[in-house]
Amino acid sequence: MKSVLIRNGNIVTMNKERGIIKGDLLIEGNRIKQIAPEIPYVADEVIEAEGCAVIPGLIQTHIHLTQTLFRGLADDLELLDWLKKRIWPLEAAHTYESNHISALLGISELISGGTTSLIDMGTVNHTDAVFEAVKGAGIRFMGGKCMMDHGNDVPDGLMEDTAESVAESVKLAEKWHGSEGGRIEYAFAPRFVVSCTEELLLKVQDIARDMNLKVHTHASENRGEIAIVEKERGMRNIQYLQQLGLTGENLILAHCIWLDEEEKRILADSGTMVSHCPSSNLNLASGISPVQELLEMGCNVSISADGAPCSNNLDMFTEMRHATLKQKISRMDSTALPALQVFEMATLGGAKALGKSDELGSLEEGKLADVAVVNLNTVHNAPNFGRDIVSQLVYSVRASDVLHTIVNGRILMRDRKLTSIDTAQVLSSAEKVSEDCMKVIGSL
């Protein structure tokens, strides 16, 4: 059983007491074995963490790895134009190879920034390419193929037959869910109500319940989207999802910006998981989600970067900073969404969304060994003496400050060098394949 000893770090445990311990953390196999001021142990690998924060691996709960190749190709557009004029045509043009490279590029960025777990929505086709990338890269993953059987201006390559969409999703779930010792899980991923027939959504609800799998979709991101849902379904997004029986702890909803009071109450009472994507919401001018209010009502709100074409990077530290600043200005209250609450969203909140509160989200003995080591000895973090480390992590730290990333006890990045992905090869391949993306854009 391989062991890793992280020495002399500031261990941000996120335990019930939110304790910070100056000392050592020992990993044996894929579990945290011990945390103490000093651990006299000869480990297989030793990481010196003096001047560093040792934190729970960050958990992003709404990512589109399939879109990483499209970074910079869909800026300055609102959501529905962004989808119809750029993202859907680009997704429709994906090959197995391009989708695999896109996923590897995104995973490389996530690991480099201390993200150890993600919830992903793929595109309609070539979903195995994403799962194969995840399998080799070693990151913790929940995701599934995007499901689309309805809507206007949808490319032929994305429009599906309802029964075939469901059948393929079930086949993928049976193949991938629980693989790699449980590191990889499946979630059904209908795109959003605008892209799905009621028949598909009802089938997803039934099958996900029977298979005890999560459902991951978008809701209430854009006022134009809500207008379409009201026109077609006769009610607002959250009300409609509740009527179908989809709301609850197994539903993960990205965005949830434009909510009325009844919808907020539905989310809180049902235990539905909300994934907040602040940079994406800013970039697409979608609006400001009532995160503080949802948290006060008892909702579990996690945090994520969304896809690269709408956030331009997959940096969780940027997302944490944007999340708190947006709440402060929207409420005109400098105490809104303080640093510790944001960091809880990025760790414990994400673990709850995954259904893994007992396994992830904090550094405690017996939990899975998903850990990041963050250098605080930089000019933009200094001085460090007597500082609130959690505030530094939310307001000052950058993704490039992450030195080491560990998932399931395996070091995926050491001293800023990825160990499970050939980044030079991924970058070279991404440049080649991106030429095809530009051809798609040029033909629109």
Folded structure, characterized:
With 444 residues, the protein is α/β, with parallel strands linked by helices. It folds into 2 domains: 109 residues, Urease, subunit C, domain 1; 297 residues, TIM Barrel (Alpha-Beta Barrel). The chain is built from 15 helices and 18 strands. Strands 1, 2, 3, 4, 5, 15, 16, 17 and 18 form a 9-stranded mixed β-sheet that branches. Strands 6, 7, 8, 9, 10, 11, 12, 13 and 14 form a 9-stranded parallel β-sheet that branches. Helix 2 runs parallel beside helix 3, helix 2 crosses helix 15 and helix 4 packs parallel to helix 5. The model has no long low-confidence stretch (mean pLDDT 96).
Gist of the model:
The chain is of the alpha/beta class and 444 residues long.
Attribute tags:
444 residues; alpha/beta; Urease, subunit C, domain 1; TIM Barrel; 2 domains; 9-stranded mixed β-sheet; globular
Which secondary structure elements does this structure contain, and how are they paired or packed?
Elements (H helix, E strand, L loop, with lengths): L2 E10 L7 E9 L2 E6 L8 E4 L3 E5 L1 E6 L15 H14 L3 H17 L2 E7 L5 H11 L2 E5 L1 E2 L14 H15 L7 E7 L7 H14 L2 E6 L3 H11 L3 H7 L7 E5 L5 H10 L2 E4 L1 H6 L7 H6 L3 E4 L4 H4 L4 H16 L7 H16 L16 E5 L13 H7 L6 E6 L2 E5 L2 E2 L4 H21 L1
Parallel strand pairs: 1-4, 1-5, 6-7, 7-8, 8-10, 9-10, 10-11, 11-12, 12-13, 13-14
Antiparallel strand pairs: 1-2, 2-3, 5-15, 15-16, 16-17, 17-18
Helix pairs in contact: 2-3, 2-15, 4-5, 7-8, 12-13, 13-14
